[in-house]
Specification:
Number of domains of chain B: 2
Number of strands of chain B: 0
Distance between the termini of chain A: 62 Å
Radius of gyration of chain A: 24 Å
Order of helices and strands of chain B: HHHHHHHHHHHH
Oligomer: heterodimer
Order of helices and strands of chain A: HHHHHH
Helix content of chain A: over 70%
Structural class of chain A: mainly alpha
Distance between the termini of chain B: 57 Å
Strand content of chain B: under 5%
Helix content of chain B: over 70%
Number of helices of chain A: 6
Number of helices of chain B: 12
Structural class of chain B: mainly alpha
Shape of chain B: globular
Number of strands of chain A: 0
Number of domains of chain A: 2
């Protein structure tokens, strides 16, 4: 068997293996975050790893297809990884009462404000831009 | 019996038991949510709620539970790395619409931080709790990093992020039907910026353009906030 045939076989196996892709993404994160820590970057390792993976994808060193299963697993099951952190509310008995209601009110009012401002700003800007582009194309 | 007790209280046994309970309940809740799709059944809310019953019932301190399941939290790191894939996939969308995306990101982020601060102050919430509220509208991994940077408590922020994730899609659906919006982009931006992954899921229900804009903006807004917080700590 030639090395080429071996590499094709390896690639085919890697495309099919979710576990191998999960492990590779984990390794990218591990390497990036230890690098970030060693250099003393103020940016979290996850974001450094994201930049590294983007560079790998953009330079065509890694194809999107070869990581699809791993990416889908991480993004699809992400909620599970947050469950232990969210349970920290059990360590805060003060949240079960007036304070909790106040916090809920802040979140509710804040979310409504963010939604109104974001949606209306983007909509106005989008309409202005399409009208602009339209007049430009008419003038040409 | 004594030996059994000793085994049960050992660290590996605890780690196994709590990890299995967490994963098992998560899978069950996910299935429930997929079947009935009620807003309160989202896995990020119902799983912790059910687990908290177990934790309170067995009188387990949170530290002990967290210690047993902290390996799950580690996976947030590589999951953040995986965000590079949707960004790369949508690079044509970014190139075409970057001015609008920037406007939406800056407006939404600014309002999120300002209103969290203002409403908290108004209701007499201050100190670490108020700081922990500031990044509540961005995606969980970014929010926890930002919270740590600005002097909040990452775990507490995660509770607020989850609460935003439960309320966001409900509010988003309500607002999308009432605000005078003419573009799919504005509905997507609204849900992605205000309610992170939960909003993005709702945006996908509204339409595919809404969904991809929401998913993209959710990540970009998170990154913007992380860089903002890094600059903030550097200046301080």
């Amino acid at each position: 068997m030639t090395t080429h045939a071996l590499s094709v076989q390896f690639r085919r196996k890697f495309y099919g293996s979710r576990l191998a892709q999960i492990a590779l993404l984990y390794f990218v994160w591990l390497a990036s975050s230890s690098l970030a820590r060693a250099v003393g970057l103020p940016i979290p390792g996850g974001i450094v790893g994201m930049a590294v993976l983007y560079a790998l994808l953009a330079s065509k060193a890694v194809s999107l297809r070869s990581l699809r299963r791993g990416v889908q697993w991480y993004l699809g099951e992400m909620l599970l990884f947050f469950v232990p952190a969210v349970l920290s509310f059990t360590a805060h008995p003060e949240f079960f009462g007036l304070l909790g209601l106040k916090i809920l009110a802040v979140i509710l009012a804040g979310t409504v404000s963010v939604m109104c401002v974001t949606a209306l700003t983007v909509d106005l800007f989008y309409r202005w831009r399409t009208r602009h582009e339209l007049t430009e194309s008419v003038l040409e | 019996m004594n030996l059994l007790n000793q085994f049960w209280n050992s660290t590996p046994a605890q780690a196994c038991a709590w990890s299995l309970a967490t994963i098992g309940l998560y899978l069950v809740v996910k299935r429930i949510y997929r079947r009935w799709r009620r807003w309160w059944q989202t896995p990020l809310a119902l799983t912790p709620a059910l687990l908290s019953v177990l934790i309170f019932g067995l009188h387990i301190p949170y530290r002990e539970y967290y210690h047993a399941t902290s390996w799950l939290v580690v996976l947030i790191g590589p999951a953040t790395v995986a965000f590079a894939a949707p960004i790369y996939e949508n690079r044509a969308l970014i190139r075409r619409h970057w001015p609008i995306l920037c406007v939406g990101m800056i407006a939404g982020s600014g309002v999120a931080i300002l209103t969290s601060w203002a409403f908290a102050t108004l209701l007499g919430i201050d100190g670490v709790l108020r700081l922990s509220l500031l990044p509540r509208s961005i995606s969980m991994p970014f929010a926890m990093d930002v919270s740590r940077d600005i002097g909040g408590v990452a775990d507490v922020t995660s509770v607020f992020v989850a609460a935003t994730g439960v309320l966001g899609p409900v509010l988003g659906e309500f607002m999308a039907a009432r605000l005078p919006l003419r573009s799919a982009m504005s509905r997507g931006a609204m849900l992605g910026v205000a309610a992170h992954a939960a909003g993005t899921a709702k945006a996908h229900e509204l339409g595919s353009e809404e969904g991809s804009i929401a998913g993209l903006l959710m990540i970009l807004v998170g990154m913007l906030n992380v860089f903002g917080a890094a600059i903030f700590t550097w200046l301080r």
